[in-house]
Specification:
217 residues, alpha/beta, Rossmann fold, 5-stranded parallel β-sheet, 3-stranded antiparallel β-sheet, 9 helices, 46% helix, globular, binds cytidine-5'-diphosphate
Amino acid sequence: MSKRIIIAIDGHASTGKSTLARTLAQKLNYVYIDSGAMYRAVTLYAVKNNFDAEQIIDHLDEISISFDVSGQIFLNKENVSDEIRGMHISERVSEFAAIAPIRQKMIQIQQGYGKDKGVVMDGRDIGTAVFPQAELKLFMSASPEIRAQRRFEELKSSQNVSYEEVLQNILERDDKDSSRKTNPLRQAKDAIVIDNSNRSKENLLQYALELVEKTLN
Ligand code: CDP
């Protein structure tokens, strides 16, 4: 069997990380893990139970998170893949993602998924904290307006949200995620930076596949 590696994709909010990670994993026959979905699921649990950032720490044992082979995420065995994309979760997730015991629990689960390699994981701290030894690290950015427009297009049919609200949420999350104490959003020193402002999905996937090829050779 050919060599299998860990691919870490980090970057700002809504830069197309998940789309790239999912399609890359499909092409390579790797496992895809959306680490952001995990923080969103914890946030959903807290919001549903009315726990604030302090209270949730005492309830982490009640939370189990898993993925199925198609990448759907389950919170205590319930498929919450759609619910976690709601703006009510996007507005709170950075607050809960800043809590150290939550990060500890998530990182443990994430590292478990990397045990056998052959994984593509996207997030904020994958190349710096979860898999600092990842063989390939990408760091994605794009202009805030383009990111907000793309996310708005995704959300507008299912949610009552404006472009301005989406833009503001993206900027706020970037700010909170970059300034938190525990494992903030940072570019790993050995990450390859990709500006996704003007690339098509196909072009980006092709470029990433070339980088994988180079890494494997
Ligand atoms: O897809 P989008 O860029 O909107 O964000 P996401 O990947 O779903 O992540 C949602 C939030 O989870 C981020 O804004 C961070 O607060 C948090 N997160 C994190 O702290 N660390 C990660 N590895 C992944 C996400």
